[in-house]
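This section describes the prediction task in plain terms. A model, or a person checking by hand, is given the sequence of a single protein chain and must write out its three-dimensional structure as a string of tokens. No templates, partner chains or ligands are provided. The sample shown here is typical of the held-out split.
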Amino acid sequence: ITKPNFYQAAKFMVGANRQVKFHLKREDSTLPDADLTILDNTNIAGGTSVYEVVHQIQLARKFELDQDRRSDVTLLINGLPM
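The expected answer:
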């Protein structure tokens, strides 16, 4: 899922009816399509969302001249970094 700017990404993360869903169309047409709920803003602090705080996560460099990056604290909601 790629968005052109921060505004479009934030708009996507709010979702329709406060739920962020994604329709996954499979390459293999024999398999059915899947509707995934990525984030459910209606169930904050419980429900179906899973929260995790991780410390010192290391992000690999994208280009050879870049440096490896390490963030102090990252909030993961359903495994997605926020």
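For orientation: The longest strand covers residues 51-59.
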